[in-house]
Amino acid sequence: MGTSFLNIVILMFISVCAVALFKRIHLPPILAYLFAGVIAGPQLLSVFAHPEEMHLLAEVGIVFLLFSLGLEFSLPKLLAMRSLVFGVGLGQMVFTTAVFTSVPLFLGISMSASIIIGGTLALSSTAIVIKQATEMGILNNRRTQLAVSILLFQDLAVVPFLIAIPLLAQTGEVSIALALGEALLKGVFVIAFLMSVGKWLLPWVFREIARTRTDELFVLTTILIALLAGGLTYYFGLSMALGAFLAGMMLGESQYKYQLEADIRPFRDILMGLFFVTVGMQLELTVLWNSLFEIIFGVFALMIVKVILVRAASLLVKTDAIDGWSAGVKLCQIGEFSFVIAALATTHGVLTSEQSSLIVCMGVISMALTPWLMNNSVTIAKRIVNKDISFDDGATFGDAEPLSNHVIICGFGRVGQSVARMLKMEGIHFVAIDMDPVRVHESRNAGEPVIFGDASQKDILLNANVESAKLVLVTFDQVEKAKQVITQTRTITNTTDVMVRTKRDYQLESLYNAGANQVVPELQEGSLMLVSQVLHYAGVPMSRILKRVRAERKGRYDHMHGFYPGETTEITYGTEDKLEFIHAVVLSEHASCIGKAIKDIDFSRMRVAIKGLRRDGNEVKDPDEDAILQAHDVLVIAGKPRRVERAERKLLEGS
């Protein structure tokens, strides 16, 4: 046990040093993990003489990676980009796989191995391209969106390969069509079962887990769901990664998506790093040394052919030449999923270790060249086309522009909702973040842009586009949590202002020291507004009142401190009976009010007010009294809690 522990410490030390070194020379961490694996492998330091011992743990990393990919799989986004995804993406995958399958087949390699080799070489690196594009700020321009469309189809194409490899290993050369047919039948059954579970069971599970407000339970449940789904598909003889992908896809449209992604990321990154370390350990240096010329020649031939084939595929939708060539340059490397497929194929005996090592060697070299190619993709495309180009970074393929110059509201309670209504009245875009599952469900049903998640987590803020936001507003009165939000915001951007609301000003200095631009203590601000009204009625000119208010805020409420306490000093903010709730009622097909006009329903007798009506995803702000209620309408009503509850029952059940 002591030796194993020491080996793990040595491996972690090598990995940390490698990642730090590669980061300094602007190379992706994947290459650092591969390098660490080579150093620690049996051919050099021999930290682990048998890398296959870590195979199961590394495979869990693949499970989490596919789970995250499933979370990113958005059906609406896919439909919005369908001409690119299923046009250019499908064309690129078919063309490239066919070309790179024919070469090894011509050299006498078996059909099974040739297909796997063709598929691995056709894939590109989603992780490197997306990360590099994000850092360069070009993720939403036209040519990058073309590349993203191809990457999306490639990510989907990984799943059939993962299904087919174990079956190809069993059938050999007997019948590839039979193997794929069997995989298809099993896949249809498992997908149908998991989709059923995902529709009826998982939302309820996560709703109940979220209500406990226990972070550890939420994380553990996320990991358990991913592993259970992977174990189910593995039981049916399919890949564990397929089950994880389906589980992620089922949860990808839920309100918990961003929090799930944030929770799984640390485990995914660590275990995926371990996976790439094991890939590096399996790299045969003798193959690299003996075939160095062939590998280098193969890399350049591969990259040139992939650039040409991406451009050819882009002609299917008549894409601009500059965009097509630029996308090809971005995608000419071998992807991280190629290593996954190659490792799985080697494990099942479809590929030899030498063939797998050749793919890994070519992948490492092509990935190392990717950052430079990404930075110069447009320049290279211009030289190929031999014409000038005007940058049009605002043109996107998609259904909506990403938010910018918006307000992020952390906490969507009464204060957050009041701010949101005022922002909406002024036409200012906002996105809210809240951890209350019921509140998020209610507000999302009413059409509010609310994300379920912990605002103090970096990934949640990134999903709210904090780097391009105008303001981050913290509305909850939890000082330590507010400081975490400020810290995470400052690690992402220094240009976005942060405003914090507190009940009292006891923590004013500490919040400013944490990086807040403005702290608004509720009690002092309420007193200040009262004072301004008093001064106005006392005849003080408004200009002097505004000057006094500004000075008081600038002096951090110096004159508002200190009062004579008494027995009734404690401030009461009201009772529940004084609250007014807003509630979204989703009208099912069997609701008793279906087919009735709004005027025929006595809302005044129920003592609730209509705030809005949503139909087919569109908001009707002031619905006409003659409007007929239809199935699947969302009626937004307001009133005291018990009255809202009675009104909902009457609308749905008629009693």
UniProtKB/TrEMBL annotation:
Transmembrane segments: 6-23, 30-50, 56-75, 113-134, 146-169, 175-197, 217-235, 295-317, 329-351, 357-374
Protein name as catalogued: Potassium transporter
Membrane topology value: Multi-pass membrane protein
Gene Ontology molecular function terms on file: antiporter activity; monoatomic cation transmembrane transporter activity
Domain RCK C-terminal, first and last residues per copy: 568-653
Pfam family, one: TrkA_N
Keyword Manganese: no
PROSITE patterns, per the entry: RCK_C (PS51202), RCK_N (PS51201)
UniProt entry keywords in alphabetical sequence: Antiport, Ion transport, Membrane, Potassium, Potassium transport, Transmembrane, Transmembrane helix, Transport
Main location: membrane
Keyword Transmembrane attributed: yes
A cellular component term, taken from the record's GO annotations: plasma membrane
Organism per entry: Alteromonas portus
Residues covered by the RCK N-terminal domain: 404-521
One annotated GO biological process: potassium ion transport
Database matches in PANTHER family: K(+) EFFLUX ANTIPORTER 3, CHLOROPLASTIC (PTHR46157)
Compartments in which it is found: Membrane
